């Protein structure tokens, strides 16, 4: 058997990849985070599949479910919201499976920041304005940030910053980024990206924290700060430039 860590996408059930849906449909066991993964996706599972909501399970209990399925000879779909490559808590699960000798594969999904950018109708990298995107979060009691990865340090780059799990700490985000980006720097928040209840908040570093509070956004949101969010006057990309040399076969 194989454990498949599948990126379920940012929320909309139809944003799972074709590979993800096909893999889900072939697995006899599915572990999913009930608080984050849309229930509609479970319809892709085989009718007789064993479904396990991991919302209230700890790592040991999740690992036990994976090992049980392995012993019973079942392929397992481990559904994670967004994409498994960032902020998914997949690394420690894979480490446990490595220690137990259980094979696994990773099926990528649409990350939340990509869905947020689509909702904002923005390209995050714009010629001559910004070509770097930083994906990060803020420190809190549960997990500290490594040295050198605090917002004040990252903000010195001036790059577009995408913050996960940070809506609750909007005031701190503003305080740490303001000296580097300025009060007029465009900022945006997308909560529940791609879902029916999606909420988009636009503003600047000067007012975005207040707007987040007024909207009551506390979780399941992405904060973006950077000049590319408001870029209008910029040079066209060289990719489609008439001056670019093109070779025909």
What does this structure look like?
By secondary structure, the protein is an alpha/beta fold. It is 26% helix and 19% strand. The protein has seven helices and ten strands. It has helices at residues 18-25, 59-72, 91-100, 112-120, 151-154, 170-181, 208-215; strands at 3-7, 29-32, 50-53, 76-80, 104-107, 133-136, 160-164, 186-191, 199-204, 221-225. The strands form two sheets. The protein has a five-stranded parallel sheet with strand order 3-2-4-1-5, with helices on both faces. Strands 6-7-10-8-9 form a five-stranded mixed sheet, sandwiched between helices. Strand 8 (186-191) and strand 9 form a beta hairpin. Helix 2 packs across helix 3 (91-100).
The side-by-side strand order for the widest beta sheet comes to: 3-2-4-1-5
Mean pLDDT comes to 93
Shape: globular
Largest sheet: 5 strands, parallel
Low-confidence stretches: none
In what range is the share of β-strand residues?
A: 15-25%
Alpha-beta classification: alpha/beta
How many runs of DSSP E, i.e. beta strands?
10
User: Kindly, what is the distance between the CA atoms of the first and last residues, rounded to a whole number of angstroms?
Assistant: 46 Å
Following the backbone from N to C, one meets helices and strands in this order, namely EHEEHEHEHEHEHEEHE
List the total number of helices.
7
GO molecular function: precorrin-4 C11-methyltransferase activity
Pathway: Cofactor biosynthesis; adenosylcobalamin biosynthesis
EC number: 2.1.1.133
Enzyme class: transferase
């Amino acid at each position: 058997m194989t454990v498949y860590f599948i990126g379920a996408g940012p929320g909309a059930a139809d944003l799972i990849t074709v590979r993800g849906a096909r893999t889900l449909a072939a697995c006899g066991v599915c572990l999913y985070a009930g608080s984050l993964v849309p229930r509609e996706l479970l319809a892709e599972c085989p009718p007789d599949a064993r479904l396990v909501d991991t919302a209230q399970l700890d790592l040991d209990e999740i690992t036990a479910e994976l090992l049980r399925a392995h012993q019973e000879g079942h392929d397992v779909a481990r559904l994670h919201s967004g994409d498994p490559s960032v902020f998914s808590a997949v690394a420690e699960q894979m480490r446990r499976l490595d220690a137990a000798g259980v094979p696994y594969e990773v099926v990528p999904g649409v990350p939340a920041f990509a869905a947020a950018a689509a909702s904002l109708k923005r390209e995050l990298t714009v010629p001559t304005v910004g070509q770097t995107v930083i994906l990060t979060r803020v420190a809190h009691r549960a997990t500290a940030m490594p040295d050198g990865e605090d917002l004040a340090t990252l903000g010195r780059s001036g790059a577009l910053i995408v913050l996960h799990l940070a809506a609750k700490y909007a005031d701190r985000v503003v305080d740490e980024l303001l000296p580097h980006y300025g009060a007029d720097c465009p900022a945006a928040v997308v909560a529940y990206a791609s879902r029916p209840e999606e909420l988009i908040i636009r503003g600047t570093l000067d007012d975005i924290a207040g707007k987040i509070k007024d909207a009551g956004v506390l979780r399941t949101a992405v904060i973006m700060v950077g000049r590319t969010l408001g870029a209008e006057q910029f040079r066209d990309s060289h990719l489609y430039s008439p001056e670019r040399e093109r070779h025909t076969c």
